[in-house]
Design goal:
This protein is mainly alpha-helical and about 575 residues long. Helices cover about 70% and strands about 5% of the residues.
């Protein structure tokens, strides 16, 4: 309550007192018929007392008003302090909210800044990759230009050689014409001598003209046959040398540009343990853990005295890889019991499928085959866990694709189609062990399902001679397949199969007439044939080598090629006395 309010209340009280005094005075002035002076005095005194009491009451009211004023003032101050405190708290709350919002905005800006930096970094990396690809293409273009220049130089050189040969041929023709004239003259002389000699021979040999002609024709026929064999041999040798030179040049160029690792998969995989304590935990109480693990993964766990090592044994590389990942996860987790083993094996199987699909996709990207149906990625990646004579099928397929593509580039053919057919020529092996049947038939069915072109289907069948080669790129795939399978260290056979193959090779060679002995050398890549010089002539030895090679091709299955060497040796011994 303010001071003005108190003054107003005090003024009202004074007015009320003055009003009472006025009333009392009027009553005192009113003439009373029976009143007297003493009565007036008494009334005046009463009025004065009333005024005095009114003053006292006014003072008390004023005092109470002042006290109420103080209380109201204190209450107002407290209320004001409370309001100020609430206002400060609200201000602090708003300030903290503003600070948090500011911090959040700052963090968002930093996050967006980092994302923008990452985006810029990724774009820079992509640009670098594109630059590298462009540089690679420029290098390939330069190589092709250099190859074209070399070929052009060869053509110019050959043209000069041809001109020189034409000049020499002209000279030879003129010389031949001169010789022909000389021969015609001599022929006339020979004819006359021949008639005289014929009569002389008939006289000496007692033979008719027809008998002498038959004997002469027989001798001439034998000489001509020997001469034809020699000529055929010489022409074939020249053609073979030229073809081998060109083929070796192309194959050498392709192989030199390919640097592929040799991968040999064994039947066991080892896993390192943090300590020997884990061996007991892997085995579990009464062997429950190890039995559960082997049942779920299909492998054998070998836990022996070797410190900190567990061996996984299985003929299936995919099972070994799955078991290895599962054991490593269980060791990291630390919880090894049947229920947890089931969970981990199920997780690893899901991860394995994704890993296989990604591996197939990366292989296609690596070979530049961006238009292959994604449905084939899984089957291509699965080839990594398949082997053929211990050779990794995926690495073999990549090697075939690279070699075929490089040879196709050298020959001016479709290199991309050659790489595609080379990669997919053994794709049926990814599931042939599960479905049964020929991997070529399964591969054909898979590629038809995902609409692969006809050269790919032809390569799948032709590389096992199940149908003829219809495209030049397919011929390169078959050659690259033989190269990849035949190079040293690529494939391994069992000792028994190896010995049987060599024995059969020697038996085929010894079945021919005139063969004294045969030796298979160079791990079955070469067979040396010793023939009897009394039974086989030099020309017949040449024909024998071809017959032996043809029979080996018909009766044996072998990787690569087998070189047949026929050796005929004649010794003449004489003693000087």
């Amino acid at each position: 309550m303010t001071s003005e309010t108190l003054l107003i209340i005090f003024s009202i009280v004074l007015l009320f007192g003055a009003f009472l005094v006025f009333i009392l005075l009027r009553r005192g002035k009113t003439p009373s018929p029976v009143g007297s002076v003493p009565d007036l005095e008494e009334k005046r005194k009463e009025a004065l007392e009333v005024v005095a009491r009114a003053k006292e009451e006014a003072q008390e009211i004023l005092k109470k008003a002042q006290e109420e004023y103080k209380e109201l003032r204190l209450s107002a101050e407290r209320e004001a302090e409370k309001i100020v405190r609430l206002a400060q708290e609200e201000a602090d709350r708003l300030r903290s909210i503003l600070k948090e919002e500011t911090e959040r905005i700052r963090q968002d800006m930093e996050k967006k800044s980092r994302e923008m930096e990452d985006y810029i970094t990724e774009r820079k990396q992509e640009i670098q990759k594109l630059e590298q690809a462009l540089h690679h293409k420029e290098t390939n273009l330069e190589r092709r230009v250099q190859a074209l220049e070399r070929r052009e130089e060869d053509l110019y050189r050959r043209e000069r050689e041809i001109r020189e040969m034409e000049r020499q041929i002209d000279q030879a023709q003129r010389a031949i014409q001169a010789k022909l004239k000389e021969l015609e003259e001599r022929e006339k002389e020979i004819e006359s001598l021949k008639h005289r000699e014929l009569f002389e021979l008939q006289r000496i040999a007692n033979m008719t003209l027809e008998e002498a002609r038959a004997e002469l024709l027989k001798r001439v026929e034998e000489e001509a046959r020997i001469e034809i064999v020699r000529l055929m041999k010489r022409i074939e040798e020249e053609a073979t040398e030229r073809a081998e030179f060109e083929a070796k040049k192309i194959i050498t160029t392709a192989v030199q540009r390919l640097s592929s690792e040799i991968a040999i998969n064994y039947t066991t995989t080892t896993v390192e343990l943090p300590s020997n304590e884990f061996k007991g935990r892997i085995i579990g109480r009464e062997g429950r853990n190890i039995r559960t693990f082997e049942l779920l993964t299909g492998v054998d766990l070998i836990i022996d005295d070797t410190p900190d090592i567990v061996t996984i044994s299985s003929f299936d590389p995919m099972r070994r890889e799955l078991a290895k990942d599962a054991i490593e996860k269980l060791i990291q987790d630390g919880r090894i019991h049947p229920a947890r083993i089931e969970e981990v094996v199920a997780e690893v199987k899901k991860e394995m499928d994704e890993k296989i699909r990604k591996m197939g996709e990366e292989t296609c990207m690596e070979l530049g085959l961006y238009d292959i149906n994604p449905g084939l990625y899984y089957y291509i990646g699965k080839l990594y866990y398949r082997t053929s004579y211990s050779q990794n099928v995926l690495l073999h397929s990549k090697e075939v694709a690279y070699i075929a593509g490089m040879m196709a580039e050298e020959l001016g053919l479709d290199a991309k189609m050659a790489r595609r057919a080379g990669l997919l020529h053994d794709v049926g092996k990814a599931v042939s062990h599960e479905l049964g049947g020929s991997h070529t038939d399964i591969g054909i069915e898979l590629c038809r399902r995902y609409v692969e072109p006809d050269p790919v289907l032809n390569a799948i069948k032709a590389h096992h001679n199940e149908e003829p080669v219809r495209y030049p790129e397919v011929a390169l795939v078959c050659a690259a397949d033989a190269l990849s399978a035949a190079r040293p260290g690529a494939r391994r056979e069992s000792l028994e199969a190896y010995l049987k193959r060599l024995e059969k090779l020697e038996e085929i060679v010894k079945s021919f007439r005139g063969v004294q002995n045969a030796y298979a050398v160079q791990a079955g890549r070469e067979v040396r044939v010793i023939v009897s010089p009394e039974e086989i002539s030099d020309e017949e030895a040449y024909i024998l080598s071809k017959n032996i090679a043809r029979k080996i091709e018909e009766e044996m299955q072998f990787p690569g090629q087998i070189k047949v060497v026929v050796i005929r040796e004649t010794r003449h011994v004489e003693y000087a006395k």
